[in-house]
C-alpha cells in the first residue's frame, strides 16, 4: 500500500495531509451493467443505431479502458457486427453495422482491454429486440360493440390452438386506456398502468413480452381487461373526461415461432369476444369499485365456456397517432409496508396507519356475506384533533370499494388506479379488522436506486428519506406534481427544479428520455411549452418562465449526468424553438409579457402589514430564465458543433443580460425586487457584471439574516439558494438555512413528522391547523431540490460538464453545520463514486472511491488543496 504526503507550504504548521491509495495487487478486469439505450435487455428498440453502455470493474489503481470489442449476433449466432476500437468510450457507443431488421432479437457481448495490458473475459450474453414498423402490425384495434359507455371494465378474450412445439412466443400489446393482459390465467407481466401515459394524440407506447413459457400444448386463452386510465377517464382539475378519446380499445399481436421453422400470428380482430368483469368502475382520481359477485371464474383460461353474455367485439380504424416502443422504465410494485396501528379516531372512524406517506395501494383480505361493501379511503395526514383528513384531496375520492361474494376469504387491490396515502379509513369491514388483514404496496416507475446519502444529523437523514419518497411517489410514469388530489399532472416547473436531485437518487435517464418525447410532442408550433406534459390543459396554458424552460434545462442536465449526447441532439430543435419563441415576444431584449407563475409559493406571512412577503417581480424572473435557457442552448450548440447557432446565441445572451441590468438593477447593484429569489437567480445565472456580484451575494446574506436565518424562496429560487451561497463563500449561511428547524425551512416539516416533501413550507401550521385546503399536498417533490446541494456540497460529489456522465468527477466536500460525518455514493454510468468524511478529535478524514475509466479532482475543504486522481480508493486526513 502506497502512502505519500502533501505539505502545503503556506499551511505547513496547521495541516498534515496523507493520501493512501487502494491496493495494486490484482491483475483482473471485467465488465458489468451492460445496457442498450439505458435499458437492460430491452424489447422494443426504435433507434436504428442503438447505443451500448457498460462499466469496468478493476481494483487496479488508475485504470482506464484502452480498447473495446463488441460482438453482435442474430438468433442463428451469425456475427453481424464486431468492432474492435482503440477507445476509452464505454457509454452510449453507437451501433454502426448492417441495417437491423424490425421485431428481431439480437444478442451481444463485449470484452475490453485496459491501459495496464489486461483483457477482460467476454461478458455474459445480453440481448435487445428491435421494435415494430407500421407494416409489421397485422392486428386490429378492437373494442366493445356499440358505444363504450359502461363504467365497468370490459374484458376481452380469444382462444387459439398450439399443436406444435414452440420455439418462441412474443406478445405485442397496447391500448387506448389501460390494459391488464393474461395468458392461460396468469398475468403476462409485472407492469402496471400500461401502456403508460404519453401525448396520446401524437404517440402511444406498446409493450413487448416474451411469453414462450406460458404457451401450452392444446387450447390457450388470451384475456385482457381494459380501464379508463388517463386516456378516457377524468383528468386535470377541471373535471374533464374523455380528453383523448371516448373509446377504450385494445391492440394485441401474438407471434408464435415453432421449432419446425413455421410461424403464426394471433392478432386482435373480429373473432374476439367481450364481456364486463368485476371491476365496475375505475378512475385514476377516484379509485376502483370491484364487485366479486361479478367475477367470471376462469374467463382467461382455455377451458372456459362462454355464456351468451359474451359478445363479438367491434373493430375500429387505426388513428393518426404513432405506435412507439418503450423508451422508459415500466411501473412496478416495490416496497411493502405492514399496518402499524389500527385505531378509532375521535370521530369514531376506523383508521389504519402505515407509517409512510407513499403512492400505490392497500391489499386487503376480507371474508363476509355476499353483497358486503367495504370502502377503503386514503389520506395523507390526520387533522389537529386526530381525525381522518381528506379536504386537501379536493374532488378526488381516492376510495376503493370491494363488494364481497361470500364463502371464502379474498384478497383485494385496485387494478387501474393508485392512491397517495399514509392512512386509510375502512368502513363496512365484516368482523374485526386486524393488522394482518392489510398491507400497503409502493408503486412507481422501475428506476434503480443510484444515490445514498447520510450524515451525523438524524434530521438531515430524514430529510433525505423524504426527498427520496417524494420522488418515488411522483415518478409514476410521468413526473407529477402530486399523487393524491384531482391533479397528478406533469408540471414542468416542478420537474426541471428537481431533475438534478432526481438523477442523484435514482437512474432517471430512461425515465426522462421517455417524458421529453412528450415535451417535444406537446410543444406548440410557435415554440411555447405548456405548463403540464402531457398537456391536458388549454392550448393557451403555456409559456411560463421556469416552467417552459424544462425544454432546455432537463436535456442539458441529463447530458451532464448521463453523457447522453443523443438526447441533447434529439431535443435541440425544441430547445431552440423555445428560446426563439421568447425572443419573438420580447421587446428590446426584455421578456416582459405573458403569463408567469413567478416564484411559486414563496414566503407570505399572514396579515403582512410590514411588507415581509417575499414578492419577486415575475418579469424580472422571466428575464433570468430567458438568459438561462439561452445559455443552455448555447452550451448544447457547442457540444453538437453548431457553430452558426453558437455565434447567434452568444450575441443574444449578451443583449439579454445587458437589458436585465438596465431594467432591474440600480447603479449601486441593488435589485428592483429585494428578495432572496431575485439575488439568487441573478447570481446563479450570471446576470450581473462581475464586479457587482460579490456585493449582491452580501445583499442576499443580509436578507437571509433579516429573516432570522430563514429562507423565503419559492419553487424557482429554492433549488439554487444554497448553491449561490456556497459559490460566493457563504457555506456557513447555507448550513444555517439547511439546518433551520423553524418555519419556513426544510427541517420544519421533518420536525412536524413529515415522511415526504410538502408542497408548502407550512402545509401543517405551527398550531396544527392546515394551509389552504385546495392546494396543500403533503407529497410534492419540488422543495426536495435541496438534495442536489447536499450531494454536491456536504458530500462533495460533483459532475464536470466538460467530461459528462462523471467521466471526470469533482470531489469537494464542504463540512459545516456542526456535522461530524457525511457519506454519499453515486452509481454513475462509469461506476460507483464514493465520498465519505468524518471529523474526530480535531482530525478531518476523507475517503474517496473513483470508478475505473474515470478520474477525479479532489479539493480538500481547508486550503483548497487540489489533486488529480485516477480510479481507485484514496484516504486523506489532516488536523483541523
Could you explain the architecture of this structure?
This protein has about 900 residues and is an alpha+beta fold. The chain has 14 helices and 47 strands. Strand 42 (about 820-825) and strand 43 (about 830-840) form a beta hairpin. It is globular.
Observed structural traits:
alpha+beta; 21% helix; 880 residues; 14 helices
Helical segment tally? Answer: 14
| Number of DSSP strand runs | 47
Q: Please bin the fraction of helical residues.
A: 10-25%
Helix/strand-derived class? alpha+beta
Oligomer status:
single chain
Rg, nearest Å: 29 Å
Shape type: globular
Q: Give start-end ranges of low-pLDDT stretches.
A: 1-27
The amount of beta strand, in percent, is 25-35%
The largest pleated sheet is described as: 10 strands, mixed
How far apart the termini lie comes to: 25 Å
Mean pLDDT: 95
How are the SSEs placed, and which strands pair?
Layout: E1 3-6, E2 17-21, E3 29-36, E4 51-58, E5 65-73, E6 79-81, E7 84-85, E8 93-94, E9 105-114, E10 126-129, E11 141-143, E12 154-162, E13 166-176, E14 178-183, E15 186-187, E16 203-205, E17 207-210, E18 218-227, H1 229-232, E19 249-258, E20 263-267, E21 273-276, E22 279-283, E23 287-291, E24 311-312, E25 314-316, E26 322-324, E27 331-338, E28 341-344, E29 350-366, E30 373-379, E31 381-382, E32 388-389, E33 399-403, E34 410-412, E35 419-427, E36 438-445, E37 451-455, H2 458-474, E38 475-476, E39 478-479, H3 492-505, H4 509-522, H5 550-562, H6 565-585, H7 618-640, H8 643-664, H9 676-684, H10 693-706, H11 718-727, H12 731-738, H13 747-751, H14 786-795, E40 797-799, E41 808-811, E42 821-827, E43 832-840, E44 843-850, E45 855-859, E46 866-869, E47 872-879
Parallel strand pairs: 16-26, 23-33, 41-45
Antiparallel strand pairs: 1-2, 2-47, 3-4, 4-8, 5-6, 5-7, 5-9, 9-10, 11-25, 12-18, 12-21, 13-17, 13-19, 14-15, 14-18, 19-20, 21-24, 22-23, 27-36, 28-29, 29-34, 29-35, 29-36, 30-33, 30-35, 31-32, 37-42, 38-39, 40-41, 42-43, 43-44, 44-47, 45-46
Helix pairs in contact: 3-5, 3-14, 4-5, 5-6, 5-7, 6-7, 7-8, 7-9, 9-10, 9-11, 11-12, 11-14
Amino acid at each position: 500500500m502506497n502512502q505519500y504526503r502533501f505539505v502545503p507550504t503556506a499551511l505547513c504548521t496547521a495541516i498534515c495531509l496523507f493520501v493512501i491509495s487502494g491496493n495494486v495487487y490484482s491483475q483482473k478486469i471485467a465488465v458489468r451493467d451492460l445496457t442498450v439505450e439505458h435499458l437492460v435487455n430491452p424489447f422494443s428498440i426504435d433507434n436504428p443505431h442503438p447505443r451500448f453502455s457498460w462499466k469496468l470493474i478493476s481494483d487496479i489503481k488508475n485504470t482506464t479502458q484502452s480498447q473495446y470489442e463488441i460482438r453482435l449476433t442474430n438468433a442463428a449466432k451469425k456475427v453481424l457486427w464486431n468492432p474492435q476500437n482503440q477507445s476509452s468510450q464505454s457509454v452510449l457507443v453507437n451501433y454502426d453495422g448492417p441495417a437491423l431488421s424490425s421485431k428481431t432479437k439480437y444478442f451481444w457481448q463485449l470484452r475490453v482491454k485496459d491501459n495496464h495490458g489486461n483483457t477482460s473475459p467476454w461478458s455474459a450474453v445480453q440481448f435487445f429486440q428491435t421494435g415494430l414498423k407500421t407494416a409489421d402490425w397485422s392486428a386490429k384495434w378492437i373494442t366493445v360493440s356499440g358505444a363504450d359507455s359502461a363504467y365497468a371494465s370490459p374484458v376481452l378474450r380469444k382462444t387459439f390452438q398450439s399443436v406444435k412445439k414452440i420455439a418462441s412466443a412474443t406478445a405485442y400489446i397496447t391500448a387506448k386506456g389501460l390494459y391488464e393482459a393474461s395468458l392461460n390465467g396468469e398475468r403476462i407481466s409485472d407492469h402496471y398502468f400500461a401502456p403508460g401515459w404519453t401525448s396520446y394524440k401524437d404517440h402511444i407506447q406498446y409493450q413487448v413480452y416474451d411469453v414462450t413459457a406460458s404457451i401450452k400444448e392444446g387450447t390457450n386463452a388470451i384475456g385482457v381487461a381494459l380501464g379508463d386510465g388517463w386516456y378516457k377517464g377524468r383528468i386535470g382539475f377541471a373535471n374533464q373526461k374523455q380528453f383523448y378519446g371516448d373509446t377504450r380499445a385494445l391492440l394485441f399481436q401474438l407471434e408464435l415461432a415453432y421449432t419446425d421453422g413455421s410461424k403464426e400470428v394471433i392478432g386482435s380482430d373480429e373473432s374476439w369476444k367481450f364481456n364486463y368483469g368485476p371491476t365496475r368502475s375505475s378512475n385514476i382520481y377516484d379509485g376502483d369499485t370491484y364487485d366479486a359477485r361479478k367475477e367470471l371464474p376462469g374467463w382467461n383460461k382455455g377451458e372456459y365456456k362462454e355464456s351468451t353474455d359474451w359478445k363479438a367485439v367491434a373493430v375500429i380504424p387505426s388513428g393518426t397517432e404513432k405506435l412507439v416502443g418503450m423508451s422508459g422504465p415500466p411501473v412496478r410494485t416495490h416496497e411493502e409496508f405492514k399496518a402499524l396501528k389500527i385505531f378509532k379516531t375521535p370521530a369514531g372512524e376506523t383508521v389504519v396507519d402505515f407509517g409512510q406517506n407513499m403512492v400505490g395501494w392497500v391489499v386487503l383480505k376480507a371474508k363476509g356475506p355476499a353483497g358486503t361493501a367495504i370502502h377503503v379511503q386514503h389520506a395523507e395526514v390526520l387533522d389537529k384533533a386526530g381525525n381522518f383528513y381528506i379536504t386537501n384531496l379536493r374532488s378526488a375520492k381516492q376510495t376503493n370499494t370491494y363488494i364481497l361474494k361470500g364463502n371464502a376469504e379474498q384478497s383485494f387491490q385496485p387494478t387501474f388506479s393508485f392512491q397517495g396515502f399514509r392512512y386509510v379509513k375502512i368502513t363496512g369491514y365484516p368482523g374485526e379488522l386486524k393488522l394482518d388483514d392489510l398491507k400497503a404496496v409502493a408503486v412507481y416507475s422501475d428506476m434503480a436506486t443510484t444515490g445514498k446519502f447520510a450524515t451525523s444529523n438524524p434530521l438531515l437523514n430524514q430529510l433525505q428519506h423524504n426527498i427520496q419518497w417524494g420522488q418515488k411517489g411522483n415518478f409514476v410514469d410521468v413526473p407529477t406534481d402530486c399523487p393524491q388530489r384531482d391533479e397528478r399532472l406533469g408540471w414542468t416547473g416542478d420537474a426541471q427544479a428537481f431533475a438534478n436531485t432526481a438523477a442523484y437518487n435514482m437512474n432517471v435517464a430512461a425515465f426522462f428520455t421517455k417524458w421529453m418525447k412528450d415535451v417535444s410532442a406537446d410543444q406548440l408550433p410557435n415554440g411555447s411549452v405548456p405548463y403540464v406534459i402531457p398537456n391536458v390543459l388549454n392550448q393557451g396554458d403555456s409559456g411560463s418562465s421556469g416552467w417552459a424552460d424544462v425544454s432546455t434545462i432537463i436535456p442539458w442536465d441529463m447530458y451532464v449526468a448521463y453523457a447522453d449526447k443523443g438526447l441533447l441532439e434529439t431535443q435541440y430543435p425544441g430547445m431552440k424553438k423555445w428560446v426563439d419563441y421568447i425572443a419573438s415576444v420580447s421587446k428590446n431584449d426584455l421578456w416582459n409579457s405573458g403569463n408567469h407563475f413567478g416564484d411559486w409559493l414563496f414566503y407570505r406571512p399572514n396579515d403582512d402589514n410590514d411588507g415581509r412577503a417575499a414578492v419577486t417581480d415575475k418579469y424580472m424572473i422571466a428575464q433570468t430564465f430567458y438568459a438561462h435557457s439561452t445559455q443552455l442552448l448555447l452550451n448544447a450548440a457547442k457540444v453538437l458543433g453548431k457553430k452558426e447557432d453558437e455565434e447567434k446565441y452568444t450575441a443574444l445572451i449578451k443583449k439579454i443580460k445587458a437589458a436585465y441590468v438596465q431594467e432591474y438593477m440600480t447603479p449601486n447593484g441593488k435589485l428592483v425586487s429585494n428578495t432572496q429569489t431575485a439575488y439568487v437567480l441573478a447570481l446563479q445565472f450570471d446576470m450581473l457584471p462581475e464586479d457587482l456580484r460579490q456585493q449582491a451575494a452580501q445583499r442576499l446574506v443580509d436578507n437571509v439574516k433579516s429573516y432570522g436565518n430563514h429562507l423565503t424562496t419559492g419553487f424557482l429560487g429554492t433549488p439554487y439558494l444554497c448553491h449561490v451561497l456556497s459559490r460566493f463563500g457563504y457555506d456557513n449561511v447555507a448550513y444555517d438555512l439547511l439546518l433551520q428547524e423553524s418555519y419556513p425551512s426544510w427541517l420544519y416539516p421533518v420536525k412536524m413528522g413529515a415522511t415526504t416533501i410538502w408542497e408548502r413550507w407550512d402545509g401543517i401550521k405551527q398550531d396544527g391547523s392546515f394551509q389552504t385546503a385546495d392546494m396543500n399536498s403533503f407529497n410534492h417533490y419540488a422543495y426536495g431540490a435541496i438534495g442536489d446541494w447536499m450531494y454536491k456540497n456536504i458530500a462533495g460529489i460533483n459532475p464536470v460538464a466538460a467530461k459528462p456522465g462523471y467521466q471526470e468527477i469533482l470531489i469537494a466536500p464542504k463540512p459545516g453545520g456542526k456535522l461530524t460525518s457525511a457519506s454519499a455514493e453515486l452509481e454513475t454510468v462509469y461506476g460507483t463514486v464514493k465520498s465519505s468524511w468524518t471529523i474526530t478529535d480535531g482530525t478531518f478524514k476523507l475517503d474517496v472511491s473513483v470508478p475505473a475509466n474515470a478520474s477525479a479532482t479532489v479539493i480538500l475543504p481547508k486550503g483548497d488543496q487540489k489533486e488529480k486522481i485516477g480510479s481507485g480508493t484514496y484516504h486523506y486526513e489532516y488536523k483541523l
